[in-house]
Amino acid sequence: MPSSGSYFIDRHAAEKAVGLSLPMIQEAMKLKEVGESGFLYIVVMDPLLRPPSYSFEEAILYEHAVGDRSKWDADYAAFARAKARVAWRTGMDGHTVQELRPQLLTANDTVLWGSVAVDDIIVGVSGANPWYDEAFAGTVAMCLRALAKAGIAEQRAKNLFLPPK
Predict the structure, then answer these.
(1) Which CATH class is domain 11-156?
(2) In 3D, which of 101, 6, 73, 75 has the Cα closest to residue 44?
(3) Are 26 and 78 in contact (CB under 8 A)?
(4) Whole-prediction pTM
(5) Cα 141–143–146 angle (5° rounding)?
(6) Annotated domain spans of the chain
């Protein structure tokens, strides 16, 4: 698997973005209207490892399970990956593809939604109702974008205007 293509968005940043999002996600998962499974799976893609140069598996930057996987009643990881794959391949939120651009779906794509594409940051989530999967994916994506912006600010503060050699 290649190392991250992005300078500011790497596995550590993805893990941190998920960690920042988890308190909200875990609190929301207590509500029945959010979903009843009690489980969730998150897939974060590398924003620079894009098709066709990289396979989907190579482009997965980070994955995280919420809840005891041995008690899962469905394969939430497979669902989250399938949702992330649609967004990764098309560069669009899963819901946008499902509802507005269904002609972009292939025979191998899921018809479930719950993934986002925010400024080339792709996150897929499964385990809650799809509108909450999408909200949780968006939260992770926005936190990841914030971490990238913080990285830029840190570089500027150190007067590091050129990339390291």
Answers:
(1) alpha beta
(2) 6
(3) no
(4) 0.93
(5) 110
(6) 11-156
